[in-house]
């Protein structure tokens, strides 16, 4: 599974992470209710279960941890690209800005460009998932040790391990937004794993928007797309 396919599976699986999402992920992972056996992971998982496994690793399965409301709106990687593109178009029209030709959204990229953008978005997702510091060093080591069991392609597994070992900071993520399209998508993918009721995570998202150089009016449009 390459980065683009994994990212699409993550977003699609996130739609199933509702109020009962913790139980959903634990069922996919075969995690017992408590104790050391909880750390036992199943191997040879199918794509949907792999995505559930990665989400569980990134977000944790402790009580109270949940995905932000955006996750229930985004239908897959295509939706991220489409919503970001539409938000930019609406923002340009609202601000009477010159509406030149925009770059391609992530879902219209192919080959190395698609893989590169997908890696950037995965990097942003992992950083956002770590925004509240819920993953300590012990848990991070455990997560890194379990990634090889998720059945991912070696390069994708290696990428996840490296990012979990030291996730990118806000400024590094912001620097990856080298176009309006990529910046909008980075914001949306980060919003997906942010709990807006958590002050620390909400502050992270605000700081990220600044690092991405997204104007406040464009952020409003991005949020409007999520809510539509």
Oligomer: single chain
Give helix and strand order, one letter per element, not per position.
HHHHHHHHHHH
pLDDT averaged over residues? 77
Q: What's the number of extended β-strand segments?
A: 0
What does the radius of gyration come to? 17 Å
Helix content percent band: 55-70%
SSE-based structural type: mainly alpha
**What overall geometry do the principal axes of the alpha carbons give?**
globular
Query: Helical element count?
Result: 11
Number of domains in the coordinates? 1
Characterize the largest beta sheet: strand count, sense, and whether it forms a barrel.
none
**Intertermini distance:** 31 Å
Uncertain segments are 36-46, 61-66
Describe the model:
This protein is an all-alpha fold. It has one domain (3-227). Helices cover 61% and strands 0% of the residues. It contains 11 helices and no strands. It has helices at residues 3-14, 21-29, 47-59, 77-94, 111-129, 137-146, 154-165, 170-176, 180-192, 199-211, 216-227.
């Amino acid at each position: 599974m390459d980065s683009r396919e994994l990212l699409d599976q993550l977003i699609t699986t996130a739609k199933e992470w509702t109020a009962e999402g913790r139980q959903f992920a634990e069922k996919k992972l075969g995690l017992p209710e408590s104790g050391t056996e909880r750390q036992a992971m199943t191997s040879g998982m199918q794509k949907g279960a792999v995505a559930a496994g990665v989400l569980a690793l990134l977000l944790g399965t402790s009580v109270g941890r949940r995905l932000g409301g955006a996750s229930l709106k985004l239908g897959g990687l295509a939706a991220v690209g489409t919503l970001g593109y539409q938000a930019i178009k609406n923002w340009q029209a609202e601000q009477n800005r010159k509406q030149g030709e925009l770059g391609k959204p992530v879902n219209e990229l192919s080959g190395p460009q698609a893989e590169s953008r997908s890696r950037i978005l995965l990097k942003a997702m992992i950083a956002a998932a770590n925004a509240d510091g819920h993953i300590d060093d012990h848990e991070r080591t455990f997560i890194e040790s379990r990634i090889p069991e998720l059945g991912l392609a070696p390069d994708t597994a290696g990428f996840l391990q490296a990012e979990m070992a030291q996730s990118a900071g806000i400024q590094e993520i912001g620097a990856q937004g080298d176009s309006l399209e990529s910046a909008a998508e980075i914001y949306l993918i980060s919003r997906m794993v942010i709990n807006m009721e958590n002050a620390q995570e909400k502050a992270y998202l605000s700081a990220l928007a600044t690092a991405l150089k997204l104007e406040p009016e464009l952020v409003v449009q991005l949020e409007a797309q999520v809510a539509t």
